[in-house]
Amino acid sequence: MNKKSRPSEQYIQENREVIGKQIRTFRENKGFSQDELAEIMEVNRSTISKVETGKFAITIDYLVKFAWYLDFDISVLEKKGK
């Protein structure tokens, strides 16, 4: 793949779906329903559903909130000083 080209919509959608499935797994492992997670995150349940099915373009802010409430690590860069 030529990295100078743009990612296809299919590539983006597939990755949204993969991330959504992982978030659903984390939610289920924590024992939360979509309604319960939506309540503690102060979002609509439909937002949780859309994220989990890859129908929502998740922002970094939302990803950080999911990581906080579901207790998973989203580190992608090594922190300085380690």
From TrEMBL:
Pfam families: HTH_3 (PF01381). SMART domains: HTH_XRE. Keywords: DNA-binding. It comes from the Bacteria. GO terms for molecular function: DNA binding. The keyword DNA-binding applies. The keyword DNA-binding applies. Residues 23-77 form the HTH cro/C1-type domain. This is Helix-turn-helix domain-containing protein.
